[in-house]
Amino acid sequence: MSTAARVSKDALEPAKGGLDAVDRGLIAATQAGLPLSPRPYHVLAAGLGVPAEEVMQRLQRMQAAGVIRRIGAVPNHYALGYRANGMSVWDVPDESVNELGRRVGALDFVSHCYHRPRHLPLWPYNLFAMVHGKSREEVEDKVARIAGLLGDANHGHTVLYSTRILKKMGLRIGT
Amino acid sequence: MDELDRAIINELQGGFPVCERPYAVVAERLGTDEYKLLARLYRMREQGVLSRFGPMYHAERLGGALTLCAMQVPEQEFERVADYVNDFPEVAHNYARDHALNMWFVLATETPERISEVIDAIEARSGYPVYNMPKIEEYFVGLRFEA
Fold it and tell me: Does the global pTM surpass 0.95?
């Protein structure tokens, strides 16, 4: 990992999740987002009492370690007109779920794809793929493409549409 | 939303630089200037066009835990159970869905142990089972929405 050489030994000390107090301070300071100021990392650094260079190194290290998936914008998909959101769920053989999951996850219209446990007899599905579209028809078309990809490995599927948002808030991560 | 707003959304879903003046770098790519970009981001965040702008953290790698839960709740009990479930700060979001399992929520907790505590409390209080569906494997997370 190329960034590891540039960070101090302290920053690599094992802590909760491999993070130290400064990392956790940085996470807390960015929970609501990045400062909208020309030098956002300097603003964070001033708040934490560390050099801006260190803030940037820590963010890069957390990104390299996968603690930060990415830095960027998450649009509200409803605001962009993606109002039909279908959770497609599939019953596929456990021995091929990894191979199939990777292929379904690679489709450009699938936003989340996971292997999850069945709860028989009520819930026979073990592969989840979230599909977004501007209409239900668009979602159904995309679900049909997944069905085509799975072929005989698909032992049954359904699509669950959300009918109401009961609660929605950003993830709050303890620091 | 105009063309610049759309261009900003499409550009920033891909990632944001870590450098001294990152907004200036992105503005140059978009053919605009730093202050205009900041003003647009501020407005889109205020209006809720952007749900979030900043680092996206991986909860499990921070020592926390996430799981997806589902419940089958009779219609006449639905609001009561929804209120009770939503009262837990660990419930990040909760959707009604058109299926026998009609309530689906995500739990995000600071520790893995807390997941089962919350589930036990919801089951005890509501009187209905919670079907816990933690991910066994993650194949893909993320999506670029074309603005």
Answer: no
